[in-house]
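Project standup — Tuesday

K.O.: blocked on the structure for the chain from last sprint. Re-posting the sequence here as requested.
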Amino acid sequence: MHERYNDMYEACVRYYVQGETMESIAHHLELSRSSVSRLLAEARSSGMVRISLEAPQGSSSPAARSLAAMFGINVHLVTVGESAPMPARIERVARLAATLFRDSVKDGDLIGVAWGATLSSIVPFLERRPLHDAVLVQMNGGTNIHDTSARHVAMMMQAISAVFDARIVQFPVPAFFDYAETKKAVWRERSVRLVLELRSKLDVAIFGIGALHGRVPSYVYSAGFLDDTDLASLKEQGVVGDVCTILLREDGTYQDIELNQRATGLTPLELARIPKRIGVVADPSRASALLGALRAKTITDLVCDDATARAVLDIFGPARAIG
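H.V.: unblocked you, prediction finished:
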């Protein structure tokens, strides 16, 4: 036991203080990488390592304060820099979003999750936090004609469920119905109404901001959910992106977009009933979509990078692009 304690302590010093990789620590201690991972996890659970999070430096920056004041939200900003490669930008934002999400849920919560590329990037950074009687609710349908099983959605939900020990409530319907009339009929089914009822009572929700034209493709527009005719129609109607598959213009309007009558996600009006709504974006090219989401009042807590925040402010003109 004494030898294991020593290994645990040295692994923690090398990993948390000196910034060594698990591979390097494993080589030094003559252990496998998985053994080092277990030592670090045991150190956290035993209290040897206590991780605390201060408000990120960017959250008090002029850009963050401007967005917070303009939209009445909490802004959690990651300082990355204009020249940072996209993978690094996404990882930094995903890490902060994972911490905020983990710290925002509690026993008994109904937790809403919208699938997408952004959420998939957050899941690997979620640290385990077992909850009592928590329920994880899929907020929008995930199937299409090219992917009838939506395995990526199921895997994401299972991973988050394992973090929180939460029961999963899936929503096994298409992301978009072919006909609005079909959606109305399905919405009357008792099994579907059960999910809709849970969605209306969510305590916390987390979602990404989809963009019609982002540097990192959004699943909604790149994975077969919409055909060429749909995409052309969205462009004509001024759609810039979506939240929970509800399509938005830059000015935040969405009610008269025909495809929204077939979408299965929560509308901004429905989202507004949720006390805490964490919106996550790490791509300056999604600034217009993020602006639409903010104007539609879909977000209470925004997690983004500094370049994306400035890109949103730039849309208002140089005089308001602070930071």
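K.O.: great, moving the ticket to review. The longest strand covers residues 276-281. The two ends are 52 Å apart (CA to CA).
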